[in-house]
Design goal:
Elements lengths: L1 H15 L12 E13 L6 E17 L2 E17 L6 E2 L1 H11 L3 E6 L2 E7 L5 H13 L10 E8 L2 E12 L4 E14 L4 E3 L5 E2 L10 E13 L4 E14 L9 E15 L11 E2 L24 H15 L8 H14 L2 H11 L3 H14 L2 H12 L5 H14 L4 H11 L2 H4 L2 H21 L9 H13 L2 H14 L5 H5 L14 H9 L2 H6 L1 H13 L5 H13 L4 H12 L4 H14 L8 H13 L13 E9 L4 E10 L9 E10 L2 E11 L1 H8 L10 H13 L11 E7 L2 E8 L1 H11 L5 H16 L1 E19 L5 E23 L10 H6 L2 E8 L2 E13 L3 E14 L2 E8 L4 E7 L8 E13 L7 E4 L15 E10 L4 E10 L8 H5 L2 E10 L5 E10 L20 H15 L14 H15 L6 H8 E2 L2 E2 L4 E3 L20 H7 L11 E9 L3 E11 L4 E8 L5 E11 L2 E10 L4 E12 L2 E11 L3 H16 L2 H7 L3 E4 L6 E10 ...
Antiparallel strand pairs: 1-2, 1-14, 2-3, 3-4, 3-5, 5-6, 6-15, 7-8, 8-9, 9-12, 10-22, 11-19, 12-13, 13-14, 16-17, 17-18, 18-19, 19-20, 20-21, 22-23, 23-24, 23-25, 24-27, 25-26, 26-29, 27-28, 28-34, 29-30, 29-33, 31-32, 32-33, 34-38, 35-36, 37-43, 38-39, 39-40, 40-41, 41-42, 42-43, 43-44, ...
Helix pairs in contact: 4-5, 4-6, 5-7, 6-8, 7-9, 8-9, 8-10, 9-12, 10-12, 12-14, 13-14, 14-16, 16-19, 18-19, 19-21, 20-22, 21-22, 24-37
Amino acid sequence: MRVLVFALTVALAASQQINLVPEFAAGKTYVYKYEGQILGGLPQEGLGKAGMKVSCKALIRAEAQNTYLLKLADPKIYEYAGIWPKDQFAPASKLTAALNAQLATPIRFEYANGAVGKVFAPARVSATVLNLHRGILNILQLNLKNTQNVYEMHEAGAHGVCKTHYMITEDAKSHQITVLKSKDLTNCHERVIKDAGLAHAEKCAECQQRFQSLTGTVTYSYTMKPTDAGVQVSEATVDEIHQYSLFNTITGAAQMRAKQTLRLMEVQGTPIAPDNAQYSARGSLKYEFGAELLQTPIQLLKIRNAEAQTAEVLQHLAANNADMIHEDAPLKFLQLVQLLRAATFENIQAIWNQHKTKPLHRQWILDAAPVVSTHAALRFIKEKFQAGEFSAPEFTRALLLGLHLATADPEAIQQAASLAQSPKIRAMPALHEVIMLGYGSMVAKYCAEVPTCSADHLKLVHDNAAEAIAKGKISEISLALKVLGNAGHPASLKPIMKLLPGFGSAAAAMPTRVHVDAILALRNIAKKEPKLVQPVALQLFMDKNLHPEARMVACIVLFETKPSVALMSTVAGEIEKEPRNEVASFAYSYIKSLTRSTAPDLVNIAAAANVAVRILSPKLDRQSYFSSTAYHLDLYVSPLIAGAAGTAFIINDAATIVPRAVVAKARAYLAGAASDVLEVGVRTEGLQKALQRTPAADENADRITKIKHTLKALMNWKAMPASEPLGSIYFKAFGQEIAFTNIDKTFIDNAIEQATQAAKPRARQLLKETVKALQAGISYQFAKLMLTAEFRRIVPTAVGVPMELGVLSAAVTAAAVNVKATATPPLPENLETGILDQLRKTDIDLQAEARPSAAIQSFSWIGVNIVLIQASVMARGKIHTVAPFKVAARADFPRGNIKVQILPAEAPDHVAAVSFETVAVARNMEDHPAERVISLAPAAPSSAQSFIPASIQKSLCGKVPYFQVKGCIEVASHNAGFMGYNPIYYVVGQHSARISVGRGDGPALERVEFEVHIAPEKAPEKSVRETNPASGETQEENIILLKLREYLEAGLKKSSSSSSSSNSTSSSRSSSRSSSGSSRSSSSSQSSSSARMSRGHFTHGPFEKFHKNQYLATEITSKASSSSSIEALQRQAKLLEDSIAPAFVIIARAVRSDRKLGYQLAAYLDKPNSRAQLVLSSTSNDQWKLCADGVLSSKHKASARVGWGSECQDSSATVKAETGLHESNPAARFKLDWDKAPRLVTTAAMNAMRACEYLPMQTAARLAGIAVNRAENKANSVVIIIALPTKRSADVIVKAPRMTAAKLAMPLPFALPVEKDGSIPVLQDLDIQDAIEKLDIRAVIQNFDADAAVERAIDAVTKVLNEFEKAQNEQEI
């Protein structure tokens, strides 16, 4: 009996258990009221937002088992652009009417156990409308379990398959079931997402551990009532939020929020009639992308005839941007790009045929086609080149961008492959390389979007590599490896390993550069599959039989796989036992530089590197500067979620002085992503081989000897083999190699041939044509259009419309140039072959006028962007600049005179304008004139107060008095700062600044002149001071001149007279101490140093000057060169302008309608006395001058004096340098004397001396090995003596007014080629005074020979190196 009672109880409980399966009973129509809205903007209320709303009745009826119909009744679409929540949604009546037929068409869907299956609809229902139906069906997606109330699962939906959390509760009183469902939209696989411009960006998971720049979540709340067969959904609400912030801020993130409500109104018996058209399968619940990427969210174009509309935009650009760029030209350019994206190949071809003969139109089409990124545009570029309608430079520029920016899919990959195999392309090696690299990048982009992409897309490259290996074609093997490296497909690992030493049999026959290329090809694979690459890179690094360069490159790849602490410790242990210093130095420096890394993705490897450094011996830290080295430096700022890193690798070879490879890389971090922005590498493997056949490869030679032998080998580069490359250089952008070139003997020959083209008939002919064109006048218009940035991300929302965020920037630059030349005497009609000689005898007058201008517009947005409607919050910035100028130049070659005049040019109202605004925009295709645009910042109430005013309107003007040029800057700002102290409130709104430049109210500025007179026979008339007696100087202008004078004098006249006096008593005491000290000097420099220094004090002997005409004389006196001293020469002739014609004169002045103001710089050369003088003076009636005198008295003495003030007499400073002996050692003495130093200098010196009194200078000097004595030396004078006790050491003595400091026996890094008697063998044949006497500046300029100058420079360097080598050898002996 008990068993029977228990069984009945269990049966009763089972019968009362609710079946949690949503039910739509057969024969019934369920009528729901539906509303879905989406709004974007900042989270704070009171700011502008934009969005849209859809409301309707949703009718659901079972058509067959597991098959249902959904029909929307009374649909209405609204748009919103206003201040939330004050403003209301506005009906988009015209758009609703246009879509009504599609919206009212019933769709069919599969539904079983709460899961939505396939969706069916007639073909006339667009993807946009069907996505709105999916938004309703997505609410019905319920995976309810009878056995669990709280559980997690991965559930399919409109966003993809995402992690979902369920919680089910039952209310016994109301007999209702409540279901709460939430999804983490950042934790999805098979996620529905569309990106543009982000294919090569790496996801930095470590950067997003603390903060994610883009987050998304959606919560569902259901109220259900039990039925006989399941549960009935009576009400459902959905709340979805996406938040994006470029920086780690709490309140500054932009949000996109979607809400849905579905409420059961009634259950009817009225059936739903399906459409008469055929229903076809249209996918599942997943959002279906349409043409979202083809249109930009900054403008909504209704494209009726793409060809005609494109031609209209081209004509508008030509008409409004001829002389000066219009400020909205970038917007028109974006419109052109959008139209071309919607155009077919035939449309683009027709547009090209219509405008290809018009230079500006042709250039704009060529600028726009690569950034269109469609199959039609890529086909257009390919076919027009094959038809011969593009020049090679035009095709290269278009294709380089087109391949890397094209939308990557199998069709585009096939186009790139067919282009690479074209015979015309293969006949042009440089183009073939560019296309192949672009092909690999396109495969990488496609595989980034489709991770399951097939390796068949690289079959062409794999086959090419196999064929090249079989035939031994090294260049083709390297190209294939670079393409595989760009693609970064894991399936390419096996073909690459065939060329790696120790892994493939083919590797043994390959040169080192192929091994290096193969190892580098693993880098992009390592980013996807580090565990596959890590053991390969480790084995290569451990292989001590491998070439050191290959091992160091393997080390780079190994560390990019981010090894663990254990693996890094293993590497450190191997480095300890490494026999090759180059490899050990490189690996150690790389590990040590990584220990300082703060980048989030390198945190673990930095910790591992710190462990490894402790294992390694400190002796590795004392490597030579010429050793192989790696540098890494980075900075990451967590609150900004941004950072930057720089890495450099220098791979040296112990055999030669030239590095085998140098690589520099820049990496950037932003908003949770990272990318290798730029990488440049230079390799000299061929040059290394060539040098190893010369004495430069002698491993026993010292560094200087290697340098000398290397220079000799480079001078004989013509003897190097032409069959193999000497070096190579490559460029990478965003981790993709975009170009490379091999430098060989043929390449150098061609470069030299191009550089020396001026001596050939073709160049002469070109020069003749240029001269003729200049005489006739040249009018040229240049324009360049650039899409500088396009980054977009599109993700679906629960409502069925996508959320898009992105950045877009475009720039247009242009210049209208007019140039005309006049020759006196006129050049003949038929120019002779000696055109250069004719030009040297001609006075040429050149008139040029140009109006360069530029416009940049940038946009960033978050919102809805579909074909029918756009509703987004947008920030847009604008920059517009115009810089017109007019120049007249005259070159009188016979007289050596050049004159340049800057003339007033007609300026626009504003030469520069910058604006930034944040707006909410809503517009739809059917009612475009009703576009709604409002500022995000609302109007400030009258009672509002804030730290920064909510509205600013300021204008600041100033003028340059003499030049009568007036400049103004106008600033306007309207923000929402009155709402609170959030920084974002001060950013939103409208901000602008404009700069205008014009003439002032006084006499007009006529021109600014610059003149150069080279070696004139007499002082030019224009170098004489000018004055205009008809108009006197105004008080204001006198003040200007006085201030200019004060700046140059720097307050000289207020220096104290006491500073210029000298203390003869203290000087004599110092001299006596010096004399007594000199008597204790010894022959050995080391013992002498120790004898002269005791407890930090020292003594030293006198400095003995060399005689004028010999190195060492028995009687050496200071009178030997007194006749040619700078003081004596200045007594004879203070200024040389009265007796000698200047070597050159430079005049700069401004010419006004009433007077002139300017300065002239004249240089004079007194050849007999080896004296040079520079004089800077005013061209007005002013006695102020700045004079600089220099005299070379002999081989052993040079002096210079600078004076300024009235006739250069107010103040002066003198510097003397002379050679001689100090305590029997060769030495040089430098002496600075001054008179009335500028106040700025004296003040700084006094402050420095006061600071020294409070600082432990004596202790610091003693620790540095510097002896300091207090002394009363000559005031207003500083003396520095540098003596050489040996060729590898130096004594340095500094005598200041109040102290004497010395550093004795200071070691030098190399031996100096100075003999014991002070002679320098390398300079014995150099007679500077004779060279000065024979100097003819004009002849030097006219007969300058670059090749001869290079030869002489190399000879001189070689001689110097010979002497250094000789000194080094003697010192070692």
